[in-house]
Specification:
- This protein has 406 residues and is an alpha/beta fold.
- Helix content is 50%, strand content 13%.
- It has 15 helices and twelve strands.
- An eight-stranded mixed sheet has the order 1-11-6-9-5-2-3-4, sandwiched between helices. Strands 7-8 form a two-stranded antiparallel sheet.
- Helix 10 runs parallel beside helix 11 and helix 11 crosses helix 13.
- The radius of gyration is 21 Å and the shape is globular.
Length: 406
């Protein structure tokens, strides 16, 4: 059972009473009269063939308060898109699929590239960004949720708890982040959050000194969770990273644009399991190797915008400080796991920390060697200023794809 402690500077919604999902949904149906709700599902086609997504759809069929569901479909050819239309057809909500590899959306993507406004690389960030644009063009939802499509432990109460703080008409929250313990098969998971982000934030506080931004990030219990809900207007002004820095980048944008009193986090699950990324020690372009590089660069970029200057010596100091914090945390995690009857492989944990420590230096070199890097996809406000009718044409393209005119 969750505690009731408010730690940090972000309001924390706990799971104190195990309130039933039916009770939450009954209230959410009332809230939906004033604040219609939608859901974004960024998906690879391969996830339609995996063990999680069909069960997720089975749960979403039962959700009574959602007004629309928008699926961003990546890496799908024509036959696979047609299969996806059939796969999601049992959803009773107003459901649309963005065929991101289809000719209509590819043409719009090329047009954005001509204006210097497109995403530089495919990935979850690009997928979510296009789904956000379609949500804005449809105008059907004033509260928008998002979660991944590979959640093996999914049940619809997760979504109800995620949406509740933003959907409640008497609350003033514009954004809500989900958190949960990463436990599966008797093991403690969540390596990147536990072994990279938490010790890195504490090391940055030591090296750079106290900073509101670092205290802000450190207030989130699971800053890398892929589950969040927001008011639709948040989608207009936010810039999204296209790489693995998506979650950190979104939190950074919110800290820049909104009062902390408008941001919160919520306990959405007792246990959470999804597809595990390999470490990929020998491949810096995949797995936790790539993820740690992108996350580290995202933090360096944000700190630079706040006046922090870095040198090669600073990155070496940061690596040493991070390494000490991370090793201390491994011992704490090991003891916590033992008390709870869970297993934790200290050897593989320390191997991951060694890789992450090395990548702090590599991310620093990449950051300093490429000062003109454009890490963010521009906000939809900027896109609409440059190409005023693009959202309208995107809506038309998605409707044609979903009506069978492929």
């Amino acid at each position: 059972m969750s505690d009731f402690h408010q730690n940090g500077i972000i309001t924390d919604f706990h799971n104190l009473t195990r309130r039933s999902v039916e009770a939450l949904e009954q209230e959410l149906c009332q809230f939906a009269r004033r604040r219609p709700m939608g859901l974004i599902l960024p998906s690879l086609f391969s996830e339609l063939e995996g063990p999680a997504l069909s069960a997720i759809v089975d749960e979403l069929v039962k959700v009574p308060y959602l007004n629309e569901i928008v699926i961003g479909l990546d890496r799908a050819d024509r036959e696979q898109f047609l299969y996806a239309r059939e796969f999601f057809s049992r959803l009773p909500q107003h459901t649309r699929i963005l065929w991101n590899d289809g000719p209509r959306l590819r043409a719009l993507d090329a047009e954005l590239e001509e204006h210097g406004l497109g995403a530089l690389e495919p990935g979850k960030g690009r997928n979510v960004w296009y789904c956000a644009g379609y949500m804005l063009s449809s105008g059907r939802s004033t509260v928008v949720g998002l979660h991944d499509c590979d959640i093996l432990t999914y049940e619809r109460g997760l979504l109800a708890r995620l949406m509740y703080p933003v959907a409640h008409p008497n609350f003033n929250y514009s954004f809500c982040k989900g958190y949960y313990p990463r436990i599966a098969e008797g093991k403690l998971n969540g390596r990147v959050s536990r072994l990279l982000v938490t010790p890195l934030l504490r090391a940055l506080k030591t090296v750079c000194g106290p900073m509101p931004y670092l205290d802000y990030l450190d207030s989130f219990r699971y800053p890398l969770s892929g589950e969040f809900a927001m008011r639709s207007e948040v989608l207009e002004g936010i810039r999204m990273p296209a790489d693995w820095g998506l979650e950190i980048g979104v939190l950074s944008e919110l800290q820049r644009n909104y009062s902390l009193r408008q941001l919160c986090q919520v306990d959405i699950a007792d246990a959470y399991d999804h597809k595990h990324q390999p470490v990929s020690e020998d491949d810096p372009d995949s797995g936790l190797n790539r993820m740690s590089l992108d996350i580290s660069k995202a933090l360096y970029r944000k700190l630079a915008t706040q006046g922090v200057t870095f040198s090669s010596e600073d990155f070496r100091t940061l690596k040493a400080t991070y390494y000490r914090f991370a090793l201390d945390l491994i011992e704490a995690y090991d003891h916590d796991a033992t008390m709870n009857g869970l297993s934790l492989d200290r050897h593989s944990e320390e191997q991951a920390v060694e890789l992450f420590a090395s990548n702090l230096l590599e991310a620093g070199n990449l950051f300093m060697d490429n000062p003109r890097e454009r890490p963010f996809i521009p906000s939809w406000n900027r896109v609409q200023a440059a190409v005023p009718d693009l959202l309208t044409r995107m809506h038309e393209a998605v409707e044609l794809d979903n009506q069978g005119k492929v």
